[in-house]
Amino acid sequence: MIKILELFGGIGAPRKALINLGIDHKAIDYVEIDEKAVRAYNALYDNKHKPQSVIGYNLMPDILVHGSPCQDFSRAGKRLGGNDEDKTRSSLMWETLKIIENLGSWKPRFVVWENVKGVLDKDMIHSFNKYLNEMSRLGYTNSFEVLNAMDFGIPQKRERVFTVSILGKETFDFSKLEKLQTGSINEFLENSPDEKYNITIPSMLNKIKELNPIGNRNYNRFLDVIDTHCWTISTRQDRCPNAGIIKLKDGQYRYLTERECWRLMGFTDDDFDEVLKEYPGRRNNKNSTLYKLAGNSIVVNVLEAIFKVLLELYTYQVKDGVAVNVAYKEDKKK
């Protein structure tokens, strides 16, 4: 059985990936300070977690996954950085290192960190390199790559840096990731959603690229119509820029719905419906909580591909499409 710890866990994309793969696992704990994300996680996985901080935390997982807050690395943010002395939201990634170091001689065998491409920018990469150096000091071999959700069956151009650190000298081989043909965007869209998603505010209509070709192109501040894929699902869709908009037959335009955003992050309608019970929202209003929970998550399909490669380091049997009797290769040699 694989023991997993989710830090900055959001709505539990790592756990969802393991469930989809049929991997025998135990979520030994989940750490998330956002109360709404915790309630959503509990609704999805029938747990009774409470909001808690990663600071001073101590557990012993096999796989540690952390998607520390990205706002201060993001190209759309204030670029405050993630230095450990800055005390920004993104600097919380250093708490993960403290957790690993405090475990002493015992360490997680795999650490997966996801963040925005902005961590590789010239004014931010010093923090990223420091993270890699610290992980190396702790005994890990690091590999990283920018992965696009579109390469894993999801029609969303969401590019994120994934860093996989393996305890010892083994190197994670990103070339082994199983790529999937991008699904049709139409498979992810709802039929005839409510009119509350229609764009009616003049200031937003003026930013639709095909209606106003000149527009305000500073920092890509325009709304583009979705054709074959959407752009990055963010925490809000009723702003500019967003993940893109849908053109309706009557010449109107609409935002993506909350359910569509969840689908485009790799979650099922059943997942969405469970969390909708927790956050039904206000009648005739878009549900800002459900948008935010989706935008802050990791695409499940990408994690599935990463976990499949990590499982090559295990010995396991597959019965009826489900992995059972999971054990580490090195454990079996003992």
Task: Explain how this protein is built.
Helix 1 packs across helix 9 (about 300-310) and helix 2 packs across helix 7 (about 270-280). The model is unreliable at about 70-75, about 320-325 and about 330-334 (pLDDT under 50). With about 325 residues, this protein is an alpha/beta fold. A hairpin with a 5-residue loop joins strand 9 (about 245) and strand 10. The protein has a six-stranded mixed β-sheet, with helices on both faces. It is built from ten helices and twelve strands. The protein has helices at about 15-20, 35-45, 95-100, 125-135, 200-205, 260-265, 270-280, 290-295, 300-310, 330-334, and strands at about 1-5, 25-30, 65, 110-115, 140-150, 155, 160-165, 230, 245, 255, 315-320, 320-330. The chain has two domains: about 1-180 and about 300-334, Rossmann fold; about 185-295, Alpha-Beta Complex (DNA Methylase, Chain A, domain 2), CATH 3.90.120.10. It is about 25% helix and about 20% strand. This is Cytosine-specific methyltransferase.
Task: Offer a concise description of the structure.
By secondary structure, this protein is α/β, with parallel strands linked by helices. It has ten helices and twelve strands. It is globular.
How do the strands and helices of this protein lay out in sequence?
Elements (H helix, E strand, L loop, with lengths): L1 E6 L5 H9 L3 E7 L3 H11 L17 E4 L26 H10 L7 E7 L8 H13 L2 E9 L7 E2 L1 E9 L34 H4 L24 E2 L14 E2 L5 E2 L3 H6 L5 H10 L9 H8 L4 H11 L3 E6 L2 E7 H5 L1
Parallel strand pairs: 1-2, 1-3, 3-4, 6-8
Antiparallel strand pairs: 4-7, 5-7, 9-10, 11-12
Helix pairs in contact: 1-9, 2-7
